[in-house]
Design a protein that fits this description.
It is built from three helices and six strands, in the order ααββαββββ. By secondary structure, the chain is α+β, with helices and mostly antiparallel strands. The chain has one domain (4-57, 69-123): Nuclear Transport Factor 2, Chain: A (Roll). Strand 1 and strand 2 form a beta hairpin. The longest helix is centred in the first third of the chain and has 16 residues, at 4-19. It is globular and about 40 Å long. The mean pLDDT is 92.
Length: 124
């Protein structure tokens, strides 16, 4: 299967995360998307698209010093489960945390969108 479309969606996802762009993140997520991960004390975090997009594009202090962490984005695997569904495992660095994300995609009307995300982060 041609993975060009899904690779483009993953690149948009990487850019949205690294740039803190809620607009880009919104463009790559299905309206029904959810984001899951473990929070403090092992509780399950479950965010809908709107909540996650606000988190990504949230207000930060534009004058705050930004440490010079290298950008590290990597597609570890892409597995197609049908012509219009796929699962991707990716890694990216945000600050001093390296995240491993499992992104579930669905393709509708020619556009690949994230329908769910499971994340885990590790301090480096």
């Amino acid at each position: 299967m041609d993975n060009t479309g899904i690779k483009t969606a993953i690149q948009t996802y990487f850019d949205a995360c690294n740039e803190g762009s809620g607009e880009k993140m919104s463009s790559v997520m299905n309206d029904a998307a959810h984001v899951y991960g473990l929070g403090e004390g092992g509780t399950l975090n479950d965010m809908d698209k709107e909540t996650f997009v606000k988190l990504v594009g949230g207000p930060g202090d534009p004058n705050a010093p930004k440490p010079d962490f290298p950008r590290q984005d990597e597609i570890l695997s892409i597995d197609f489960t049908s012509e219009n569904t796929a699962v991707a495992r990716v890694k990216l660095r945000l600050g001093n945390i390296i995240f491993t994300d499992i992104l579930t995609f669905i393709e509708q009307e020619g556009n690949w969108k994230i329908i769910s995300k499971l994340y885990a982060g590790e301090l480096v």
